[in-house]
């Protein structure tokens, strides 16, 4: 099959074919500019999703010593750009999971920023967590990642609060691209 396509391109169209970069395969086995086809639907490739996660990890790294407002600005800039390019993908299934993962990473960053036990407890109480849960979480020696999923951090740093801080939702962006009339 490749030989006949190569022959047509070289003889009829007078083009040169790079054998190392050329191949003839079905659409679900090919990828182009970060996209692939699964059945009749267009999706991003696994490599594109891996690069997205790697960049999100970089922007939400605990040791990146920047203010949260700067972090949120860079993060929203990257997410909007990524969704602007890959938003045409019809693959919704990982969106809620990616959204939860992103919020957990941001909660972890806040937890790291509140370094001291008394600061953590004070901030959790200020955000509306019960005193018991705030003290248990504040005194805990578990990792930042583990504590970002506790009752105390999730009841204090709610999704609405994170949205007020500047975090954008990947899921809401995808929905607004595919269903513009229903988006808020």
Structural key phrases:
single chain; 184 residues; mainly alpha; three-stranded antiparallel sheet; 3 strands
**Termini separation (Å)?**
50 Å
The strand count comes to 3
**For the report, how would you describe the main beta sheet?**
3 strands, antiparallel
Shape: elongated
Q: How helix-rich are the residues, as a percent range?
A: 55-70%
* Average of per-residue pLDDT values: 88
Q: Oligomerization state of this entry?
A: single chain
Strand adjacency order, main sheet:
1-2-3
Radius of gyration: 23 Å
Count of folded domains: 2
| Count of DSSP H/I helices | 10
What does the model show?
This protein has 184 residues and is mainly alpha-helical. The chain has 2 domains: 1-32, no CATH class; 45-178, no CATH class. Helices cover 59% and strands 5% of the residues. It is built from 10 helices and 3 strands. It has helices at 2-11, 46-59, 68-86, 94-113, 117-126, 131-139, 144-147, 151-156, 159-165, 170-178, and strands spanning 31-32, 35-38, 41-44. The chain has a 3-stranded antiparallel β-sheet. A hairpin with a 2-residue loop joins strand 2 and strand 3 (41-44). 21% of the residues are buried.
Brief sketch in words of this structure:
The protein has helices at residues 2-11, 46-59, 68-86, 94-113, 117-126, 131-139, 144-147, 151-156, 159-165, 170-178; strands spanning 31-32, 35-38, 41-44.
